[in-house]
Specification:
By secondary structure, the chain is of the alpha/beta class. It has ten helices and seven strands. It folds into two domains: 5-175, 3-Layer(aba) Sandwich (Alpha/beta knot), CATH 3.40.1280; 189-247, Helicase, Ruva Protein, domain 3.
């Protein structure tokens, strides 16, 4: 199972408030065969041992006990080639928006096209969701189409829907021997972030960006490149361009 798609999708919960939601997400994951739970700054210390989390995990305590607790989203996404913020609220400068089946297809592509490719679904706090600066750390935003008059899903429900769709798509690909993947190796998200920082410095150096008033140019560039899912060589090309800008 180590190299199966089910071992390479992370469910990342950011600043979760209620222990019961952590346990319920663990249960939702286990029912669909997933096991990688990451907790970013949970509001309750040692939440994985909280009685309410254990009770609502309902037998998925192994998922809780193996959960990785980190301080930043960057730590939770380390080594990932694909990440999507999960939100019912669209943002003015959000990453490209995917519906769950579209994310599932990309997830299967990542895990089939690389022996070590990881993907992540990022869920925000129950009350406030994900802040914009964390949404922008993800190449995509996933929304679950629901009744527009009552579109509120709780955290575990959203995790269950996405876990099912990803499991279903993985099974379809396996049954049909789907030939998927990329010709080149996908760049991981840390390298893409470093490339954007390098490119921004280059654009400032040639006076294309005013650092005192950058507006939303870099956000728009992130959206543009997110649609391509950059490969390692493409990131290297863009960094080479940034270097030349700085050299001038």
């Amino acid at each position: 199972m180590q190299n199966s798609p089910f071992s390479r999708l992370r469910f990342v919960l950011v600043e979760t408030s209620h222990p019961g939601n952590v346990g319920s997400v663990a249960r939702a994951m286990k029912t669909m065969g997933f096991s990688n739970l990451y907790l970013v700054n949970p509001r309750i210390a040692d939440v994985v041992h909280h009685p309410e989390a254990i009770a609502l995990a309902s037998g998925a305590t192994d998922i809780l006990e193996a959960a990785v607790i980190v301080h930043t989203l960057q730590e939770a996404l380390a080594g990932c080639e694909l990440a999507a913020a999960v939100s019912a609220r669209l943002r003015e400068f959000s990453p490209p928006v995917l519906e769950p089946p579209e994310f599932a297809e990309r997830f299967v592509q990542v895990t089939a096209g690389s022996a070590s490719g990881f993907a992540a679904l990022v869920f925000g706090n129950e009350r406030t969701g994900l802040p914009n600066h964390l949404v922008e750390k993800c190449p995509f935003l996933v929304t679950i189409p629901a009744n527009p008059d009552y579109s509120s899903l709780n955290l575990a429900q959203a995790a269950q829907v996405l876990a099912y769709v990803c499991r279903y798509q993985s099974k379809v690909a396996a049954v049909h021997g789907q030939e998927i993947g990329f010709k080149g190796s996908l760049a991981n998200l840390a390298d893409v972030d470093a490339m954007f920082e390098h490119l921004e410095r280059g654009l400032i150096a040639i006076d294309f960006i005013d650092p005192a008033s950058p507006k939303k140019l870099m956000s728009r560039l992130r959206r543009l490149f997110a649609r391509t899912q950059l490969e390692v060589e493409e990131v290297n090309i863009l960094r080479g361009m940034a270097k030349k800008m700085l050299d001038k």
